[in-house]
């Protein structure tokens, strides 16, 4: 019996790059059954809602979702769709791996870093957001719980243990944010003692940013709070060629969503220009989550060979081809 997964094509370039990923998954023999649903601007135009009930039901029912980029309209009254999904389904762990691929325009050649970001607390929780009527001030609350901190730090160590990683670095700002970041660091130190076989380090976030640029080889697995994780994971993407080479997984107890982490790029939507690598890499994350390592390895090898050879690559990878040609190059290698 084939596994059914929910697929959200998304907005802008989303449908094109998701179609690319689905073709590749099929060619690799994954035999998934896809339930296609809408979210974002596409859903708003069709149903008047950014996240229709039918979409939420499909995510809950199937447990695993592959998602293209979504656009949240700018302006009051619209909550971030991604934040809403994380809250709705308790997707507490955001896992953002970055790996160097030969053939990209990246400055480094040997990057292999995973950022594990707490996904539901901190500044992204939306607590206490207030703007004065006269616009003279604004404020928001950041709340970190011991349970939330322990859950994400333990997730990072278990991931490191499972994948044979050597080091976990807890990134914080406890020197200034002594309450929230202080609690996170205290919990991180406590959990680290349970994993003596893994090297544990801690680093203030601004120092971590500098070190990532100067000596990225010092990092293996990074675990941090929501806002810092958002910033650091994008910085890490820059080390391997940009967000087009960076996938993301949002993991919860009962549901998981795998996604391209870049924007919907409406300026090139429908022009057959987008690099589908981010969502292809997200598909690989999904396969690893579903314990399908053979198919994951085949797709990664095919993708790496296309990028390294420059065969039909997109403009951001130094080529002159579009999404469909790039996809076909990967499909050709899977057929060998």
From TrEMBL:
Taxonomy, superkingdom: Bacteria
First-level EC class: oxidoreductase
Any GO BP annotation: tricarboxylic acid cycle
Molecular function as annotated in GO: isocitrate dehydrogenase (NAD+) activity; magnesium ion binding; NAD binding
rRNA processing recorded as keyword: no
EC identifiers of the protein: 1.1.1.41
InterPro entries assigned to the protein according to its UniProt record, in alphabetical order: IsoCit/isopropylmalate_DH_CS (IPR019818), IsoPropMal-DH-like_dom (IPR024084)
PANTHER family: DECARBOXYLATING DEHYDROGENASES-ISOCITRATE, ISOPROPYLMALATE, TARTRATE, ISOCITRATE DEHYDROGENASE [NAD] SUBUNIT ALPHA, MITOCHONDRIAL
Protein name: Isocitrate dehydrogenase
Organism of this sequence: Idiomarina xiamenensis 10-D-4
């Amino acid at each position: 019996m084939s596994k059914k997964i929910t697929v959200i094509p998304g907005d802008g370039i989303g449908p094109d790059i998701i179609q690319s990923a689905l073709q590749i998954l099929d060619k690799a023999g994954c035999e998934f059954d896809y339930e296609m649903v809408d979210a974002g601007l596409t859903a708003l135009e069709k149903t008047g809602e950014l996240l229709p009930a039918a979409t939420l039901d499909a995510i809950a029912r199937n447990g695993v979702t592959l998602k293209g980029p979504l656009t949240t309209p700018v302006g009051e009254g619209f909550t971030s769709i991604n934040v809403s999904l994380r809250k709705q389904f308790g997707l507490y762990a955001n896992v953002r791996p970055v790996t160097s691929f030969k053939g990209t325009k990246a400055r480094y050649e040997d990057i292999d870093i995973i950022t594990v970001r707490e996904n539901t607390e901190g500044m992204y929780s939306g607590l206490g957001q207030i703007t004065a009527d006269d616009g003279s001030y604004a404020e928001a609350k950041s709340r970190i719980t011991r349970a939330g901190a322990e859950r994400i730090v333990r997730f990072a160590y278990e991931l490191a243990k499972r994948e044979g990683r050597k080091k976990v670095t807890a990134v914080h700002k406890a020197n200034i944010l002594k309450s929230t970041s202080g609690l996170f660091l205290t919990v991180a130190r406590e959990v680290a003692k349970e994993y003596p076989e893994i090297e544990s380090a801690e680093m203030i976030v601004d120092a971590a940013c500098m070190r990532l640029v100067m000596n990225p080889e010092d990092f293996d697995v990074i675990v941090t709070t929501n806002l810092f994780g958002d910033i650091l994971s994008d910085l890490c993407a820059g080390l391997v060629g940009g967000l087009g080479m960076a996938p993301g997984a949002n993991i919860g107890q009962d549901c998981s969503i795998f996604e391209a982490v870049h924007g919907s790029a409406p300026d090139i939507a429908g022009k057959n220009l987008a690099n589908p690598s981010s969502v292809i890499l997200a598909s690989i994350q999904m396969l690893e989550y579903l314990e399908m390592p053979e198919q994951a390895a085949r797709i990664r090898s095919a993708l790496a060979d296309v990028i390294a050879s420059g065969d039909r690559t997109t403009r951001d990878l130094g080529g002159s081809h579009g999404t469909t040609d790039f996809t076909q190059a990967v499909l050709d290698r899977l057929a060998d």
